[in-house]
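Usage

Read records sequentially. Each one opens with the input sequence:
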Amino acid sequence: MLAVDLITVGKLKESYLREACGEYSKRLGAFCKLNITELPESRLPDQPSQKDIENALSNEGKAMLPLLSRKGCCNIAMCIEGKQLSSEKLAEKIEKISVDGKSILNIIIGSSFGISEDIKKLCDFRLSMSEMTFPHQLARVMILEQLYRSFQIINGGKYHK
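and closes with the structure output:
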């Protein structure tokens, strides 16, 4: 069974988002071993400079590094410049990861300022959800739903229409 580690920066603040994540986490238990790792978000001033942001992303990246270098990992960075995939294509990518002998799928959601370039370079794939802008806190719910949909597609479930 594939292990999926959703590596996030920051905690979910809204209870309705935590409940949605909890529901998809429960559903995903039938298909994978899901772990959600919440890393601390770097504190920034109200109007951070570009240097402040780069330092924060670097510090957050250092905290991610041990998780991304485990044996048998495939690392996917969620980022604006990533490739957009249909649900079916995401399912194919996840299935291929398993077939290729990878045992851990790391999906990285950075802070609202993104992910450090050093971490992105370590990733096997860069994925974007959309060209539209969504609340940062919603990203976790959306990717968990897409993971559940992908596993349903892979296993011939009826969830995806």
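Summary fields computed downstream for this record:
- Strands lie at 3-9, 33-39, 73-84, 104-109, 125-128.
- The CA atoms of residues 7 and 37 lie 5 Å apart.
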